[in-house]
Amino acid sequence: xxxxxxxxxxxxxxxxxxxxxxxxxxxxxxxxxxxxxxxxxxxxxxxxxxxxxxxxxxxxxxxxxxxxxxxxxxxxxxxxxxxxxxxxxxxxxxxxxxxxxxxxxxxxxxxxxxxxxxxxxxxxxxxxx
Amino acid sequence: xxxxxxxxxxxxxxxxxxxxxxxxxxxxxxxxxxxxxxxxxxxxxxxxxxxxxxxxxxxxxxxxxxxxxxxxxxxxxxxxxxxxxxxxxxxxxxxxxxxxxxxxxxxxxxxxxxxxxxxxxxxxxxxxxxxxxxxxxxxxxxxxxxxxxxxxxxxxxxxxxxxxxxxxxxxxxxxxxxxxxxxxxxxxxxxxxxxxxxxxxxxxxxxxxxxxxxxxxxxxxxxxxxxxxxxxxxxxxxxxxxxxxxxxxxxxxxxxxxxxxxxxxxxxxxxxxxxxxxxxxxxx
Lengths: 129, 284
Prior knowledge:
- The complex is a heterodimer.
- Chain A has six helices and two strands.
- Chain A has helices at residues 4-18, 20-27, 51-72, 90-97, 101-112, 118-121, and strands at 76-78, 85-87.
- Helices cover 30% and strands 13% of the residues of chain B.
- Chain B is built from twelve helices and ten strands.
- Chain B has helices at residues 2-26, 30-33, 54-57, 63-74, 96-99, 128-132, 159-163, 202-205, 212-215, 233-240, 266-269, 274-278, and strands spanning 48-53, 91-95, 116-120, 138-140, 147-149, 170-171, 195-196, 222-226, 243-244, 256-259.
- In chain B, the strands form four sheets. Chain B has a four-stranded mixed beta sheet with strand order 8-1-10-9.
- The longest helix of chain B has 25 residues, at 2-26.
- The model of chain B is unreliable at 27-38 and 277-284 (pLDDT under 50).
- The chains are: A mainly alpha, B alpha+beta.
């Protein structure tokens, strides 16, 4: 084997560089800080479902709402939390409490690099950017 | 070997002919596509319809603009003012002869001639637009007969725009948002590449309101109601007055009616009944 030394050194340098994001993260404390969810400031404390359900499932719930309202013309959602009825509407019900899209929606979505297309058509409340 | 191949080809040919024959017998759905001018509205449930009184509209020139304005503001319809190619409209005006160009009008009464006539989606009982939609983004609601649109699902193929004989559908060639003067938060806008049209204010009806264009009419210039209910305002008006529909001969069963005659006096309606009515009967 010619130039074994150079090749081995080169390989070691390559592996160290290629895995640098991993061990850099291990050496420093953590990655970028996860955004904190900003909860409604209008005094309302309960969502249509529990927080534990909403965090991983809100996108599915919104899809269900969309289909029921548009396809089936049903607009009332009965919460499994307490049997309360809600209007299945993104701009009326959700944004009524979570009125700051930038802080509530975008903070997490940007962090996770997802770009839902809700806002291509639906209008966010005024006064929030 | 040679004989085998010939047999195989013969058999294959016969099979192909047989299969083609079988499907062509089944294919045309004649029942659904016909339906003359006089067919009754279908379905047992509610069949929403609109009756537009052209005689009343002729008296108020500003009313049409009010209706258009009310609708287009409520639904965030963009206004590309000097750009007819990109025009998006849910409700608009055309002069009487153009609106009803399939009928021929010779020597028509002066006060109808060239009068702006309010046009919108006819929410046909036999809508051609819904049949061509490849994604079912537009369909006829069984419950009330509204020809609905699901803008989430529209892929912008524009088949429906071509299929609609009334020009009721518009395509968003451009992003509509910059062309909306003031956005109504309650209602979504559309995005570039989507077809839109009047929905009979489906979202307002669901909240117990009348359509936006009906609401601005203070003297019942437009009446909205259930065609399947013999006691509804629309049915009573149609029973009493002369109304026409756009291109009724196509068999699409449009559900927007246009009253073209003047209200008759009580004597003309039923001379014998006048006394009865005067005595306290409800003249419907």
